[in-house]
Design goal:
three-stranded antiparallel beta sheet; alpha/beta; Glutaconate Coenzyme A-transferase
Amino acid sequence: MRRDPDKLATPEAALEGIAAGSLLAVGGVLHDNKPVALERALLRAGCTNMKYIGLSGSGYDLDLLIARGGVISEIFVPVVTFDDIGFAPAYRWAVEEQIITAHMVDVATVMAGYFAGASGVPFHPVTAIRGSDVTRHNPLVSEVTWRDGERIPVVAAITPDVALIHAQEADRRGNAMIYGSTAEAERLIARSARRVIISCDRLVPTSHFEKDPMATTIPGMYVNAVCHLPFGAHPTGSPAEYGPDVAFLRGYWKMVESARRAKDRAPIMKHLDKFVDGCRTHDDYLALIGGDTIARLCMGDENAR
């Protein structure tokens, strides 16, 4: 019986060879389940001019990629926000300066595009948006003529060049279990993408999945690499594992917002030097964050907020 290959890899090896201009799909939503450790490695790898597409919303992870400059050129995300903290500051600055193109998209059309990509069909109809301005302003939407002459809005298949997804559990073969509200959507991303990289909080034996195969969120057949990165979603949360580090998020937001108003990138570069370039490994990053912070977040301590 054929055994799946060992897909365990370092972030550097997993991300090697990503071409400039690639379409990057990122799982998670707002400040939950974002593959931030992989995205920091992406920044260190020097990837440029990428197009970013997410699920229903993004926050810190996308803002960090934009803050570097030259990494993201186009964005297909329904909402970019720091939620109750405020607008995403680096995103706002880049849009105001017309450095990036932020496309007007909505959740229904993004998910329809993933569904078409996962199903191997050229497009998926989204009749719910008919008659709205979405059909005029959303670049993912076009129309086809049905047999009776009816014009139907459709979304072309979304097939990302690479997908980054954070899971709570994975094995060396690429099987992954994701908790939280985005699991089904991330399964579609994995099925539609040409290359899938998973980060996980816990590396578990394959027998863990064999006990209940139907509970597996993403089967290993869709995954190219697994990176064991405990606490790899920080400063966003990982459902059932740890909450978002709201204190860290607020500190980042205040720093970038002040930089935006002063039009001074020096504080942003200092942040990147400390938390991205200065941490050559994930262990370096965890040491910088500190064990006390990790413990508080894992216990849901309000002091971490």
